[in-house]
Amino acid sequence: MALSSSLFRGNPALEACALQDSAHIARGAAGEHVAKIQFALFILDRLTIDRAELVSHKYGPSTAAAVLAYKKKRKIINHSYQSAADNIVGKLTIAALDKDMKQRELVPKPPGDCLLSGPSVPGAFNSFVATAAKAKTVAPNPPTGIGGVVRVFFSITTKAELQDGYPLLAEIERARDCLFEHGITLSVEIRNGFADRLQFNEPIINSLGNPVDNVDQIRKASEDARPGLPGILRVIVCQMVGRKFGETFRNRTIGGRIVPPFVLLNSEFVDRSNATLIHEMIHASKDAPVRHDPEPFSVFFETGSISLGNVERTVLKKEHADTLRRISSKL
Hints:
Layout: H1 12-19, H2 32-45, H3 51-56, H4 61-74, H5 91-105, H6 113-116, H7 125-137, E1 149-157, H8 158-163, H9 168-180, E2 185-188, E3 196-198, H10 215-225, E4 233-238, E5 246-249, E6 252-254, E7 257-259, E8 262-266, H11 276-285, H12 318-324
Parallel strand pairs: 1-2, 1-3, 1-4, 4-8
Antiparallel strand pairs: 5-8, 6-7
C-alpha cells in the first residue's frame, strides 16, 4: 500500500520500503529518506538523535537506537521470524510511522504572520509620501537615537543556493540602512561561514489549514545544524510554494517545545525593493500578528513588487524601530 503522510509520500526509498522486504532501511543508510525517518521519530516520540547523524542524514547508532525505542513502545515485531523488536525500518515500521505522522499532520498548525495580518488601513498617506519623497532626495538623516542591536543568523538550503540569484546581501543592506536611521545596529552572526547550508530539497508549503505544511521540518533542520541561538533571529532562505516574498512563524511547537519566532525568505520570489528581510523582522518583533502599514513607501507595506515602476519600500517607521530594538527579548 502506498504511503499517505505528506512527510513520507512520494519518497522513492520509503515507498519501496513499504512494499519490499529487500528495501528495508538500516544502519549505514544515508540520504533524504533517513532524514524524514529521523524527523518523524523526533516529532512523534521526542527521541534524541546525535547531531552529526541529523546533519549528515545518516542512519547511525543513535538513529538505530531511536528506531528500536519507537518499535519497542509499539511492540512492532514480525512474529514470523522475530521474538523481539530490532532497529531496522521495514514494512511494518514504515507503515506505523506513516500512520502516526498522518494523524499528527491533521493537527492544525499556525500559519505565518503575513497571512494572519490584516490588510493595510488607509491613514495619513499624503504626509507620509511627502516625508518619504524628501528622504529619497536628501542625504541620509543621522540616527534618531533609539539605539540597540538586532542580531540575525542565516541558513540557506542547498536547493536555494543552487539557484544562484537570491540577493541576500542586498536584503541585509536594506535592513541595515533602515535600522541605522534609528540608531540601531544590525549584527549578522557569522559562524564558520556566512550562512549554514541545509540539505533540504523540498519547497516549503504553508497555508491556513493545509495538512501538507512542512515548515516544522525546515525549522528542525536549521536547529540541528545550529542549536540554540538565544536572542538571535533565525532566518532561512528556501524555496516556498506560492507568490509570497517571505513569512514569519510563531507559536510553532516542535518536539514539545514552542520555538521563538523565525523567518523564511522565498528564494523564488524576490521584492525589487529588497525589503522582505526587514519586513519579516518587524513581524518577528511584535507580540502577535499586526496590520500592515497602508503606505507603499513603508517597508511594512503588505506586499512588495517584482516589477519596475512600482513604489519602492524604503522607510522604516519609528513605531516599528522601537519594537525591533527589543526583539532579542522575544527570541
